[in-house]
Amino acid sequence: MNPAILFLVIFSTLSLYTKAQRSYPACGDQEECTVHTACDEFKKLTVKGFLTKDERKYFSSKLCKNINHIYHVCCARKMDETRTTVLSLTTESTLQTEPSLQTEPTLQTEHTQPTIPRSKLPTAPNCGFHIDNRIVGGVETSIEDYPWIAKILYLKSNNKTGSHCGGSLINERYVLSAAHCERRIPPSWKLTAVRLGDWDTRTNPDCQKFNNEELCNDPYVDVDVIEIIVHPEYIPLSPSQPNDIMMLKLKDTVEFSKWIKPICLPHDPSVGGIDFTKLSLEVAGFGKTDNATSSNVKMRLDVDGVDQERCTGYYGPKSVSITSYQICAGGVEGRDSCNGDSGGPLMRSGSFPNTIYPHFLLVGIVSFGPKKCGTKDAPGVYTRVSEYIDWINSNIN
């Protein structure tokens, strides 16, 4: 895909690090600007499972006010409900069809508690927050997108530092990545730190124009790694790359901000059993462009889940075993996780109890794929994070 494709539109609902202020459109004549929790239409959406791209876009379009991070939406006036036409998020004529939400396991379970205590790993709405207003099919991200993405830094033999893998911030002290990002690197390299809050590698801080005004982030933060925890059953030389997952413990506690936030993990057991076939997933990071050069700007891409049979059909003849501990996605020519990072996140957006906006779950970690990125019918392979929640829990201290 051509990296010069349409740039993304910034959508800011939080306070800006700029003089420019976010302006919201006025509500319609038959609507009122009210707290989202008081609007029946939006209440119903909070109990749904995974949301489609159109539903997430609709959330964004209905914002009318933000007071101290309390979001207000344009809601149909109750007195006019009988004669007011409101966009239905489940009407096929107004939305592009995606797999029915009602056939997908919901993320809301009253009696299921996360395996990991909330004090160790955040749960929504304190993780994975990302309001979507991008142009579908875009490659470059907005400056505010995916604030959990980390760049893993290596000290090389020439005493220079480089980044060749990505990861995801999961709380204030830990980053999750792929084990091969430590076990399959040149002997002269040393994994030393992670970089958080970066958007454009050419500048620091970074700025992006929005309506002729500049939105600028804070300078990125480099945090030393004091412990590398590789899954004990990872086999570096195996072509199947089983248990390709590791945790990086950071020396210092990370201070969360608009530009640095953790992503949610799939605590709920119902998420672990989801068949992601044909579901829309997302990858992001500082990966390769179509001319095989690394991107200066954080990139993202939609990829669809691929069934295990089709995935095995491609990798089986290459002596690669695909298991239930992995997810396959992509396989469309020119569209693959090279637009993200090795070790970076495979994500799915969903709704949670007591939240109005969708939050991102880290469902997979970029593990491996075909030698030529974006090869037709050759999906990428990702480590399925839900299968390792207990292992993650046991290694957080």
TrEMBL record:
PANTHER family: GH14088P (PTHR24258:SF144), SERINE PROTEASE-RELATED (PTHR24258). This is Peptidase S1 domain-containing protein. InterPro entries: Peptidase_S1_PA, Peptidase_S1_PA_chymotrypsin, Peptidase_S1A, Trypsin_dom, TRYPSIN_HIS, TRYPSIN_SER. Coiled coil: none annotated. It is found in: Secreted. Residues 135-397 form the Peptidase S1 domain. CDD domains: Tryp_SPc (cd00190). Residues 94-119 are annotated as: Disordered. Residues 102-116 have a biased composition (Polar residues). Pfam families: Trypsin. It comes from the Eukaryota. Belongs to the peptidase S1 family. CLIP subfamily. GO terms for cellular component: extracellular region. GO terms for molecular function: serine-type endopeptidase activity. Keywords: Disulfide bond, Glycoprotein, Hydrolase, Immunity, Innate immunity, Protease, Secreted, Serine protease, Signal. Residues 1-20 form the signal peptide. GO terms for biological process: innate immune response; proteolysis.
